[in-house]
Write a structure and sequence with these properties.
Blueprint (H helix, E strand, L loop, with lengths): L35 E7 L5 E5 L7 E3 L5 E5 L18 H4 L1 H4 L1 E3 L2 H10 L7 E6 L4 E6 L4 E6 L15 E8 L13 E6 L10 E2 L3 E3 L11 H6 L4 E9 L4 E8 L5 E9 L6 E8 L4 E3 L14 E3 L8 E3 L2 E3 L5 E4 L6 E3 L7
Antiparallel strand pairs: 1-2, 3-4, 4-9, 5-8, 6-7, 6-10, 8-9, 11-18, 12-13, 13-14, 14-15, 15-16, 17-20, 18-19, 19-21, 21-22
Length: 343
């Protein structure tokens, strides 16, 4: 079940389901829930090592047509072991109907919080960057629940542990005015709110000549990826902080294969970000903003986090993984959502 984060906008619409109350001033005390994710760095002998995200971000989804929204934390709380009776109760004894969605009793909740390093004194923060809306909830006031994932159905009875998403239940009455299907909502659980709550900027791309694109040289790995493809339309956008450039690459049928993004410091002319977003079995470049309609925004930039540089995201649809948020600095840090993509 994957919404179109969820592109980060697009989760971001990117989770997505595929294959909203006034701003809350709740005083918060949440914790840093960090986990090793499967982003890989190629080392000697082509070995791959997991890296830790500097911040764990989750997604929000509506639970069918009910008055409940759901935040899955299954990416940091796997329950694949059928013999682990402390993770989930006996599903068969519950019966098919009741098992599709149920809240946790005290002992299962305690285990869940312990394994995810979440405290009852933490808070859950939800920020919708598309609508610039923010709410927070004390963890102690939220129900922990298990929801049958979107790729399972009654036909799969009896259900297995891995058929469930485990997380927090949120009442939709607190989410009035949020983006449709909560596609632009990001969730964090911890001691302090990490979001800057500064309105992000949708990128309004304007066509430029190919000559105006500031870099003609490609990284060696990008040259290999783009072999047989041709540079096509170029675009640009400016803010007070950065200049943004985009270059399309098309195949021999003139179909879009990839896009190259450059983020440039307007004062020094230094290229801060040089990224290629290409098509593959599990990825495809997202449409540029407003191509699908006047209100459809995929690419965003601006100050998303209090203690980090500005960000940019929304360039790639992920079929099998989760979308990422690029930090605009020389670190090349990419923060990938914990979007529980079961595709």
């Amino acid at each position: 079940m994957k919404i179109k984060l969820y592109a980060l906008s697009t989760v971001f619409t990117l989770l997505l389901f595929s294959c909203n109350k006034k701003e809350s001033n709740t005083t918060v005390q949440p914790n840093s829930v960090e986990k090793a994710t499967a982003e890989t760095d190629t080392l000697q002998n082509t070995e791959e090592t997991p890296r830790k995200e500097s911040i764990n971000l989750f997604t929000l989804m509506p639970k069918d047509s009910s008055d409940i929204a759901f935040v899955s934390l299954s990416d940091i709380y796997p329950v694949d072991d059928e013999k682990d009776t402390l993770a989930l109760p006996n599903i068969e004894k519950m019966g098919k109907e009741k098992a599709e969605y149920f809240t946790f009793e005290k002992n299962y909740r305690k285990r869940f919080l312990s394994k995810t390093n979440i405290s009852e004194t933490d808070s859950l923060f939800i920020y919708d960057y598309g609508k610039n809306k923010f709410v927070s909830f004390a963890v102690k006031n939220l129900k922990t629940a298990a929801l049958l994932n979107g790729y399972s159905s009654e036909e799969d009875w009896p259900f297995h542990n891995y058929d469930f998403m485990i997380g927090f239940e949120i009442s939709k009455k607190h989410l009035q005015g949020f983006s449709e299907y909560y596609r632009d909502a990001l969730v964090y659980v911890g001691k302090e709110n990490p979001f800057a709550k500064e309105k992000l900027t949708p990128i309004d791309w304007k066509k430029i000549t190919v000559r105006e694109f500031p870099s003609k040289s490609l990284k060696s790995e990008d040259q290999k990826t783009l072999k047989g493809n041709t540079a096509s339309t170029a675009y640009a956008f400016k803010t007070s902080s950065y200049n943004y450039f985009m270059q399309d690459y098309v195949d021999n049928r003139k179909l879009l294969f990839a896009r190259r993004l450059l983020v440039v410091d307007p004062k020094t002319k230094e290229i801060i970000i040089d990224k290629l977003y290409s098509s593959s079995e599990g990825t495809s470049p997202t449409p540029l903003n407003y191509e699908e309609g006047d209100d459809v925004v995929n690419q965003w930039t601006g100050k998303l986090f209090k203690n980090k540089p500005q960000v940019i995201f929304g360039f790639l649809y992920e079929s099998f993984g989760c979308p990422g948020i690029s930090i605009i600095d020389k670190s090349n840090e990419e923060i990938y959502l914990q979007c529980d993509n079961r595709h």
